[in-house]
Design a protein that fits this description.
This protein is an alpha+beta fold and 277 residues long. The chain folds into two domains: 53 residues; 202 residues, Glucose Permease (Domain IIA), CATH 2.70.70. The strands form three sheets. Strands 2, 3, 5, 6, 7, 8, 10, 11 and 13 form a nine-stranded antiparallel sheet that branches. The chain has a two-stranded parallel ribbon with strand order 1-12. Strand 6 and strand 7 form a beta hairpin. The radius of gyration is 20 Å and the shape is globular. The termini are far apart.
Length: 277
């Protein structure tokens, strides 16, 4: 086990210890001041600071790399969100190897995707969004090194109350539970030369490949879903320098024939006769 992985595990255990102590202190007379409950929290952040100073920024890329050119993972008309073309890290953090990650949502026609609402409806079914069930394709010839599709597709978080719940409660719980609960159902492909592709938030039961399979560029792999830490059905795509998002660092990408779409930019990928509609 790498030192970076050990730091992540110890950090999560200390965070869980804090929660347990708070619950126990509220239910029992433990005989010590309440503020001692925060000792595990303080220690967890101290460990992160020490790891940062000892090994450099723990999640940021070690050195600048030229973007790796791969095929687009989708076909049809899509909208880019949280794009590394506008800023890095694109999602506000280097954690989970997502320095250069991008989110894309399907928009077959303008304004066909349900929009954000302040109060109602609180949530929508996943199949209300055109991205749900859209086919996802291999971006290169590769080997499948991780394939997970047992997690459920949940309702959207596209109202203000639902979004606040996601940010204040659900995201924190998922982070403590580990990277699998963040990315949901997912695939990781080994593209060779120390580069790995992550497809996150896949539809439950939609995988057409298994770990160890060899795939070719353009081959259908799974379908877009709404599992993990998501507000609505979309594909979260990124390249990394390792197969474990907990310890990997981000690698920049560019999609062949498209480049890197900017935030809120629509792009279209033609469907060939060998690809699913």
């Amino acid at each position: 086990m790498s030192a970076r992985k050990l730091v992540k595990i110890v950090y999560r255990l200390l965070q869980l210890t804090f929660i347990g102590l708070v619950i126990a202190h509220a239910a029992l007379d433990l005989g010590y001041p309440w503020w001692w409950n925060f000792a595990p929290i303080a220690l967890s952040y101290l460990i992160l600071v020490v790891a940062h100073r000892w090994g450099g920024a723990p999640d940021s890329p070690r050195a600048a790399r030229e973007p790796v050119e791969v095929d687009p993972p989708v076909t049809g008309r899509w909208l880019a969100l949280n794009s590394p073309a506008d800023r890095t890290p694109s999602h506000g953090t280097h954690a989970y190897g997502q320095t250069y990650a991008i989110d894309v949502v399907a928009e077959p026609e303008p304004d066909t995707r349900p929009g954000f609402r302040m109060l109602w409806p609180l949530a929508r079914r996943a199949d209300a969004f055109p991205a749900f069930g859209a086919p996802l394709l291999a971006v290169a010839d590769a080997t499948v090194v991780r394939a997970v599709d047992s997690q459920r597709d949940h309702l959207s978080r596209t109202s203000l109350p639902a979004l606040l719940y996601l940010m204040a409660v659900e995201a924190s719980v998922r982070d403590l539970a580990g990277v699998r609960r963040i990315v949901g159902n997912h695939l990781i492909l080994d593209l060779g030369d120390g580069t790995y592709a992550l497809y996150a938030h896949l539809r439950r039961g939609s995988l057409t490949v298994r770990e160890g399979d060899r795939v070719t560029a353009g081959q259908p792999l799974a379908r877009c879903g709404n599992s993990g830490n998501t507000t609505e059905p979309h594909l979260h795509f990124q390249l990394m320098d390792g197969p474990d998002p907990d310890t990997a660092r981000g690698v920049p990408f560019t999609w062949r024939g498209i480049g890197v779409p900017r935030n809120r930019e629509t792009f279209e990928v033609p469907t060939t006769t060998s690809q699913p509609a």
